[in-house]
Amino acid sequence: MTVKTLIQKPKPNLLRQFANFTRTTAGLEKTCRLIQSLAQLAIELDITPGSTTTAQWQTARSQIALTRRFFRFFAFIDCFSQVYGLLGGAQGQGLFMTLIEIGRWSCLGLYLVLEDLTILHALGVHPVAWNTPVLVEAFKFWFYSLALSVIGAVWGLLSTSSSSASSKTGSDEKKNKKKNAEKTVSNTDDSQTKAQRTALMKRIVVDGCDLLIPGVFVGWMQVSDLMIGVTMVISTVVSGGDAWVKAQG
């Protein structure tokens, strides 16, 4: 009899995991976003307004924000690809969720396109008078996209709750038939439902926090810059967790 010894691959240390994380586009973008949000907090918490340190943090924030724009310059292609797939009916979702997703990705794609139109102005290469109006319209579309994303995630949570209740009722009615097989299937379904609900709750937290940024920019919300910095940190850490795990795979 041959005995196979399973050699478990040693888990890399934290420094190596961070290196793996920052080697991915998503990981590097999340790192820059976290630094930007921390710079925002440093500016708001500075007890000596107008000091050289405050000016340095403001410069760092603006430069990092500009850098992050290059990461998403062509992201509108993915957004419109999502819309094309949804229009093709390949997702197998209900009509309401399909419309929500089409609106969500369409608005996000329009936001990215309009933002891209102002990149030369942001770089100081070709200043234009219409920069601010275009950015305002872009941020409106971003707001719509995030709002639709939150609505869709809440609807998804309600749907999974209803599905779980129905599944549990059906399982109780057949509990005397193929008990062991049903238990295995039930455990698998429960784990999938739990993972789906976790992802939806993360989406609500992330997009709910980010909703403040365009809301304040267009004047639809009255929130302090300190609060925006805090919510940016929260959304970056929550969304960065999945990117961190994926980078280690």
Automatic annotation (TrEMBL):
Its main location: membrane. Keywords: Membrane, Peroxisome, Peroxisome biogenesis, Transmembrane, Transmembrane helix. It is found in: Peroxisome membrane. GO terms for biological process: peroxisome fission. It comes from the Eukaryota. It holds the Pfam family PEX11. GO terms for cellular component: peroxisomal membrane. Residues 170-182 have a biased composition (Basic and acidic residues). Residues 161-192 are annotated as: Disordered. PANTHER family: MICROBODY (PEROXISOME) PROLIFERATION PROTEIN PEROXIN 11B (EUROFUNG), PEROXISOMAL BIOGENESIS FACTOR 11. This is AoPex11B. It comes from Aspergillus oryzae (Yellow koji mold). The gene is Aopex11B.
